[in-house]
From TrEMBL:
Pfam families hit by this protein: FtsX (PF02687)
Protein topology in the membrane: Multi-pass membrane protein
Record-annotated membrane-spanning stretches: 20-38, 375-395, 415-441, 502-528
Gene source species: Ruminococcus difficilis
Protein name stated in the entry: ABC transporter permease
Alphabetical keyword list: Cell membrane, Membrane, Transmembrane, Transmembrane helix
Amino acid composition bias (Low complexity), ranges on this chain: 141-155, 165-176, 460-478
InterPro entries listed in its UniProt record: ABC3_permease_C, Macrolide_Exporter_MacB
Region (Disordered): 141-177, 460-486
GO cellular component labels: plasma membrane
């Protein structure tokens, strides 16, 4: 009991030194609390968001693999020379509806339940208009920009206009020879742009009605700008034509007109020039086109698929997963299935715009977390060093006190415990005060720093967009994200709402005890070295 009483009395006698130790520990505690709060916020935000979201993913042919395969087949690295071969390989390895259904039947590991929660699909045809003309979005935007006087061209330091080099287009873009994209959907769910969330959806139905799911009736939706440009109303009929055979036409009745707020082109087709219908209609047109052009194709012995005038649709399938674990397992199963079918395991890649957007949105918070972790380690290291120095100075100043207590019969072990109790008491009090202050300021400080990180990330994104080679860049020329590209703008996490939980408090206590042990252990080393008789004899 004596050592406890003496330790607390010593705290009062050395008030200046203990206040200095308390201030140092307080600063460490506040910094540690904010840093660990940021770490906890990043972890919580990731876990919470992933639990709430259904993950959509697609299976695509790896462009890099196709490029390498074409290079081997043609013994060339020139992208222009390899385009026909790459187009042929893309068609050879393209997946269809039957392939998608077989992938959807893959079972979870150790279970009879399928990995895939649900799936939907669409198919698109490149086609021309006979009774309508395409809406040139680029010409419209350029005209608007010119009239506002905001259009600027890049210049060199001398003020000369510099033309931005255009990379060669990929085969997929070249296949789109028509003015319009006729897209057939398997269901309303497949029409992702018509989302249930108005803030996230880019398309809304302005007038008329949606076509029925799986209908074989030739009805369609057209975009508002295209309808206005061609004076088309709901109930009118539009005529479309095969780009390679002007005698092959198809008529579709306009059941509705929609508005698209997006300006991103897909496969070289601007948003206003996308005509929407059911999957059954697109497949029926493809079948009729093959039949219509079969005779002309077979008449030439040298004809091939590339020479055929028949229109072929491009199939796109989307899988839905209930968890990230299912998504990750599916990626492995796709690779295994390709190898089981005698194909290269790297031929197909599974990408998810949801996962890519999720990871991109967390990037500022992850950067802040990394910075906070580094700052925490530096603060702890510097704080521990300062406390050790203060302890060494304190022990040297109290050398005679140590000698006197030892001469009175107090053992070195109890002396060591007494000094450890002093340091531990001061440290824990400062830790508790620092934790309280840190808890109060963690959220506003984190959100302030996070806002700055978001602004920095957005500036970095804009800079990267200006330096991009373009969508037609050669395969392998840019690093490909693991989960694919982000479709559309990224919504960054710009604020967090969290509370300090038990684990953060426990870590704070462990930090306090750790600092006290480091500082106290230094005192113990000096105490064990001292000889009481020499201390008393050497006193001036």
């Amino acid at each position: 009991m004596f050592i406890f009483k003496y330790a607390f009395k010593s705290i009062g006698r050395s008030i200046g030194r203990n206040i200095l130790i308390g201030i140092i520990v307080f600063i460490i505690a506040v910094s540690a609390c904010v840093a660990m709060s940021i770490q906890q916020a990043a972890k919580t935000a990731a876990a919470t968001s992933l639990k709430k979201m259904d993950i959509t993913a697609q299976i695509n042919i790896d462009r890099d693999y196709v490029y390498q395969k074409a290079s081997e087949n043609k013994n060339s690295t020139n992208i222009q020379e390899l385009m026909p071969e790459m187009t042929s390989l893309n068609k050879q390895y393209a997946l269809d509806l039957d392939d998608m259904k077989s992938y959807a039947e893959i079972k979870k590991e150790g279970s009879d339940d399928p990995i895939v929660k649900d799936y939907y699909y669409n198919a698109s045809l490149s086609i021309n208009g006979s009774s309508i003309s395409k809406y040139d979005l680029k010409s419209s935007s350029q005209s608007a920009t010119t009239s506002s006087g905001t259009a600027e061209s890049p210049t060199d330091p001398a003020g000369n206009v510099v033309e931005t080099p255009q990379a060669p287009e990929m085969p997929q873009a070249q296949e789109q020879s028509g003015d319009f994209a006729l897209i057939g959907y398997s269901s309303k769910k497949a029409m992702e742009d018509f989302g249930s969330d108005e803030d996230e959806s880019t398309c809304t139905l302005e007038s008329g009605d949606f076509f029925e799911e799986n209908t074989s009736e030739y009805v369609c939706l057209i975009e508002d700008s295209l309808a206005t440009f061609n004076s088309v109303s709901v109930g009118d009929t539009i005529k479309l034509v095969n780009p390679k055979n002007e005698d092959e036409t198809y008529e579709l009745k306009v059941s509705g007109i929609y508005k698209n707020s997006s300006s991103d082109s897909v496969d070289g087709v601007d948003p206003p020039n996308r005509i929407l219908t059911s999957y059954a209609v697109v497949k029926d047109i493809e079948t009729k086109s093959e039949t219509t052009n079969a005779s002309s194709t077979s008449s030439s012995s040298s004809s091939s698929d590339e020479d055929s005038n028949a229109m072929t649709c491009k199939f796109n399938g989307t899988f839905i997963f209930g968890s990230v674990d299912d998504y990750n397992q599916f990626k492995e199963e796709v690779k295994n299935k390709a190898e089981a079918d005698g194909l290269d395991g790297d031929l197909y890649i599974v990408t998810s715009g949801d996962i890519a957007a999720f990871k991109a949105g967390l990037k500022p918070l992850e950067n802040l977390k990394s910075f906070a972790t580094t700052f925490l380690y530096l603060t702890l290291a510097i704080g521990a060093i300062v406390l050790i120095v203060i302890s060494v100075i304190s022990i040297r100043d109290r050398k005679y006190e140590i000698g006197a207590l030892a001469a009175m019969g107090l053992k070195k072990l109890k002396l060591s415990m007494m000094f450890m109790i002093e340091v531990l008491a001061v440290t824990l009090i400062a830790i508790l005060i620092g934790a309280a202050v840190g808890t109060a300021i963690s959220a506003p400080v984190t959100n302030y720093l996070l806002t700055a990180q978001v602004e920095q990330q957005e500036a970095s994104d804009n800079s990267q967009k200006q330096q991009q080679q373009g969508p037609g860049a050669a395969p392998g020329s840019q690093d490909r994200p693991e989960d694919g590209e982000v479709n559309g703008p990224v919504t960054y996490v710009s604020s967090v709402d969290f509370t300090i939980d038990f684990f953060v408090i426990l870590k704070m206590l462990l930090i306090g005890i750790g600092l006290a042990v480091v500082s106290g252990f230094t005192s113990i080393l000096f105490i064990l070295r001292y000889d009481p008789k020499q201390i008393l004899a050497s006193r001036d």
